[in-house]
Design a protein that fits this description.
This protein has 209 residues and is α/β, with parallel strands linked by helices. It is built from nine helices and six strands. 45% of the residues lie in helices and 11% in strands. Helix 1 (13-24) links the parallel strand 1 (4-8) and strand 2 (28-33). Pfam families: adh_short (PF00106).
């Protein structure tokens, strides 16, 4: 029986390319997304073992339902949390790194490894919809350079994610850059105070949801 892998936001862009690569490496892949049509097309393009599960992961209720559904289907080898959006992207990614590092420590002695991976810039559907207003004001004069930076083919941007997901012997809690090396610069801004603030925000959202 094949090992199972789940890729959120796996119906397009980087998520779909990651799902295809995992299928090529022998995983039975489930992709999660909001659009039934895109999900069916994605599953078909991935291969015969691929499945699509519809879920809106902006809803905590649907996140919990999805978790229960996936758990009921049996052991899971890989979970690639690819879902995200462009609004408040920098802060969201920093909060995500805080959560990754904390989860890695909490699960260190359980046999479950947790990683983060920066794929670098790529020509994703989200990048195609970018407008200058999404950038912090100091960066907006550099809009042309930013747009030029997201022309890289998506297929070239999945290396760090696939490496984190499949390479043996990696140290849990490692954050990988596009060159597959540990990217300490990405976590440098993450002070204990910021990590604590991210934790409080997460706990507050979970309580309210």
């Amino acid at each position: 029986m094949k090992d199972r892998a789940v890729v959120t936001a796996g119906t397009g862009g980087i998520g779909l390319e990651v799902a295809r690569e995992l299928a090529r490496r022998g995983y039975a892949v489930t992709v999660v997304g909001r659009d039934e049509r895109r999900g069916a097309e994605a599953a078909e393009s991935i291969g015969a073992d691929a499945l699509f599960v519809r879920a809106d992961l902006s809803s905590l209720e649907e996140v919990r339902t999805l978790g229960a559904r996936l758990a009921a289907q049996g052991p899971l080898r890989l979970l690639v949390n690819n879902v995200g959006g462009m609004a408040v992207s920098g802060r969201a990614k920093l909060a995500h790194l805080a959560a990754v590092l904390e989860l890695a420590e909490r699960l260190r002695d359980t046999g479950i490894s947790v990683f983060a991976a920066d794929p670098g810039a790529a020509a994703t559907p989200n990048a195609a919809e970018m407008e200058p207003e999404i950038l912090p004001p100091p960066l907006r004069p550099h809009w042309d350079a930013v747009r030029q930076g997201v022309q890289r083919p998506v297929r070239e941007a999945i290396g760090s994610i696939v490496h984190a997901a499949t390479a043996p012997g990696l140290e849990t809690g490692t954050v990988f850059g596009p060159d597959l090396a540990p990217a300490d610069a990405l976590t440098a801004p993450l002070t204990p105070e910021l990590a604590a603030a991210a934790r409080r925000l997460t706990e507050s959202v979970l309580r309210e949801g």
